From TrEMBL:
InterPro entries: Pyridox_Oxase_N (IPR011576), Split_barrel_FMN-bd (IPR012349), Stress-Dev_Protein (IPR052917). Residues 6-127 form the Pyridoxamine 5'-phosphate oxidase N-terminal domain. It comes from Lachnoclostridium phytofermentans (strain ATCC 700394 / DSM 18823 / ISDg) (Clostridium phytofermentans). PANTHER family: PROTEIN BLI-3. This is Pyridoxamine 5'-phosphate oxidase-related FMN-binding. The lineage of its organism: Bacteria, Bacillati, Bacillota, Clostridia, Lachnospirales. It comes from the Bacteria.
Length: 144
């Protein structure tokens, strides 16, 4: 992987307002939902917030397999991350992702029982741009 590709990937993620998060339903079918891209530790660890009572949360509690997709539709660039999602209900993760305005959805603040955070950890990735696909793992990305 070249430094240019690494920079393109970082730029794609940093500029994303929305990411497409997929889970697997009880019948083995993929389910995709657009979610706000709020925070990430690095390219391979991303956080999203939602309701504990949501369908997707129940899916992740039964099957942690997931993918997250970032795209720039104007430049035909896309990054698919494949990994696992943990449903976090501890105060530390909930506080980390809390944003002004969330109280509209979660009136009790970070202590709202129906508020949780998804911690997605990727194992591998695929970057698409310019009719080319590049598969890679974290070590490939870090060493570029």
């Amino acid at each position: 992987m070249t430094k240019q590709i690494k920079n393109e990937i970082n730029e794609l993620v940093e500029n994303a307002k929305v990411a497409y998060v997929s889970s697997v339903d009880g019948n083995g079918y993929p389910c995709i939902k657009a979610m706000l891209s709020l925070q990430h530790d690095d390219l391979f660890t991303h956080y999203f917030s939602t309701n504990v009572s949501s369908h997707r949360t129940q899916q992740f509690l039964h099957n942690s397999k997931a993918s997250v997709y970032f795209c720039n539709e104007n430049q035909f660039k896309g990054l698919m991350l494949v990994g696992d999602t943990q449903v976090m209900t501890d105060r530390e993760h909930k506080a980390m992702l809390w944003r002004e305005g969330f109280e509209v959805y979660y009136p009790e603040g970070i202590d709202t029982q129906d508020y949780c955070v998804y911690k997605f950890t990727a194992h591998k990735a695929n970057y698409y741009h310019g009719l080319a696909n590049q598969d890679f793992i974290m070590e490939d990305f870090e060493n570029a």
